[in-house]
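Lab notebook, bench 4. We co-purified these components, and the gel suggests they stay together. Before we commit to crystallization screens, I want a quick structural picture of the whole thing.
Request: model the full complex, all chains together.
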Amino acid sequence: MKFWQYIGLVCLGAISCSKPVDANFGKTVEAIQITTTQKEFIAGETITLQFDGEKENQLLLIQNGWGTIAIPADSTQTSLTFSLPATVAQKSGWVQWKLISNETITATGDFFIRPSTTLAMSMETYLGPTSIFADKKDQAMIVSLPQDKFGNPMPDSTQITLTEKFKSDQKSTITSVQYMISFAYVGNKSTVGELFIGSRLENQISKEFTVSVLPTKAADFAINFERQHSYADGNQIVSFTTSTIRDQNNNIVADGTLVNFVVEDASGNSLQTYGTTLNGVVTGKMLHPEVATEWKVKAHISGLSQSNSLTLNFDAAVMDYMVDSSKDGRFISVGPILSYMGQWVPDGMGIQLEMQDSDGKSVLTLSSTTRKGMGTFELPEGINANTHKGFVIVAGIKKSVNHKTE
Amino acid sequence: MARKNLYRSLLLLSFLALNAGIIYGLAAAWSFLNTGADKSSILHIGGAIEKAYQPKIVWTTNGQRGRKISQQALSELEKDYINAWYVKNIALSTFDVLGIEDYYTEDAREDLKQLIKNNLDNQVRIEATTLSHHPRLEFYSLDGKLAMLTDNHVVQVEKIFANGQFLQQQKSTHSYQVILMLEDGFWRVRQMVKIQNPPEAQAQREEVSFNVNSLKGINYYPKDNPWDMFGKNFDSEAINADFETITSLGLNSVRVFVPYETFGAASVKTEYLDQLEELLNLAQQNNLKVLVTLFDFYGNYELMDWTLTHRHAETVVSRFQNHEALLGWDLKNEPDLDFDSRGKENVLGWLSEMAQLIKKKDSIHPITIGWFAPEAAMNLVDQVDFVSFHYYEEAKNLKERIAALKEAVGEKPMVLEEYGKSSYSGVWNLFSNSKEAQANYLAELQIVLEEEQLPSFIWTLHDFETVPTQVVGRKPWRKAPQKHFGLLDTDGEKKPAYHTVIKKEKGTTN
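Here is the predicted assembly.
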């Protein structure tokens, strides 16, 4: 008698615990009693539910997290028994069932399946982002999904050990599972390097993850220049070199950081050159001007940082030169053009020629370059150094073409 | 000689015609081969696809751990999560696991396929849908690739079939813990564990107070566009004039219809709602109350369609629930006529759910169902605030039909929502009818209504020149009478029935 009272109590408990299921059309006649008293199982166990009713036409409807299935009664048993298939018995969580005979619900109930105590071999772990800045603030996150061998999530408060190693510093912390996962923030580093990280739960181990700690935004830096001489010969190269560019935390900026050098000359023209860092240093190069001028140079990393401003002076390399025209006025020769040491200017110095008619209107402009200190122009038909006025510009020095009078 | 010439010319003409044919054919083939695909099909910018599944979703994101989620990311997560439910429901119903690949991770896929295989082996088929979700975002990872949510109180409706036979329909509430992962641009379900339902705050339901006893109404369509009064045909002047006529008849309410598809189905078009609002405003100006009948011309009561109809009802009801002129909601016109073709269970299941949904949205206005047969009105009496039925049969039988219904419904108020008679007299009924017969029928019925104190709505104000095919079908002997139920003929002239009504309602003839 006592035994039956106990059964009755358990059933009553089961009914009152479960939320009433409002079925629209199924008539609920709680005619059959469940005799299985166990309300908690372990995933992977054999789960059988036994009832005291007739075997005929009974179908057990089972709802777990993944969906609903219906199974017929076990034909090998004499009593009304249902053996739950692995698809339900191996999955943890809350399970509700309903016994249906034809169109009538004859019993309802629920039970709980705990995850198995045998853990999965490897810890399912995710890490991201895989690179962070060394700015003491940036973080990555490691998320672990500890599971049993059937892939069921472990219950809340399961303790996960997290191990990180950064340079010579190694430490372990404990995080606990909440809502099937455990997570932790890692990072907040001020130096560049590789952060290694992994998690474990007993013998369930994750693989080794790496977070690259990268230098952050460049801080302001300095530039210097180097040149062979200060003459504006349009031939030599002046190179600008930065100091080692570092971020706020003294980490050398990432290789390949683009640095722009902007040169402004005395007449307000802008010139630009750029280079990319290697070990934090960039060298930008630029040809000497052909005209005496003053350069103001500044380097930028776009939007992030800049250098000091440099001033360079270029002296005139060419003092004076000769301009002659042929007898018929069709050929104009320039030179010899002599440089700062009295030698020919290097080949390739630019020469501009402008011809004007008697009204002072420009009718022709030609340009050429020096070769062995000389430059020549052949004028087209109709334009003649004898009938037109001509001007030559070399290294910023303007001279008019002499008329051959004889 | 003449004959010879005739042959010659015929031969020549046929030769020319043949050549013309060949040239035309070649040209057509040539131009077909030279026509490229049109740009919209290359760029996949064709029209938006109407979502086939739109359960109600209410998010909670406060208290979320990890990175704060953006609205954009949340809506993408929601879309894929709901798709995951949809493909699962399809898979349970058809055993087709195609969509499962997209919305479940590799391990989860296996679990789900096992479950479906189990049902297939046991010859169990489950049609399922979910009506509402209350997801609470618990966690969103820093790199935005993993999310965990608790979906509380998911209202699920399932129909279980075993060996092809319908066994059970059940509506139940479940709660789940879900892990989703962003893979290949899809949020995929990784883990899904059922948990016990957390306690739910019970909403206090307000009592509906209404009075249908004084209702004297008419079913209304304008003369020129019956069954199609909204959209480009909407004519507020004609409606206003008709409402004035209705008021002058001594009536105080109208019943109008909201066609489901025309109004835009799940995504209701604003311009149609605006027109309905204008109609309600006009009714208010004329001191008329409006009984709005939803889901006109709707006929698919399948589980898979539930969420779409719910979104439709929600939009319409929430827009007008505070309108002064609103009398109440009629869920569906004559759903009992769909019992045979759609299955009684399907129709009743849909109506019952719809009644609950509308009640939830609008707790002030009464709801009813416009049953065709008085006997059908005995269904779902608990779900409606007043019972409605239609009557077009012998006047002498009305009294006993009402008595039978009254016994079944008890205290619930009843409304005769449609009654009337066609004055059509022509070939199809061998000239056996007349306008007087219509007037007499109304008068006869009105005596019964008076005795029974039954509020009623006449069918209808106007005779119509055309009746759309979907109303009574194509058959002319059914269409013709349908055009002549009006109190006014197509020229606007008052028929004898008009005088019957005005005499009763005002005690005068004019």
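The longest helix of chain B spans residues 2-33. Worth comparing against the SEC data before the next meeting. The mean pLDDT of chain B is 89.
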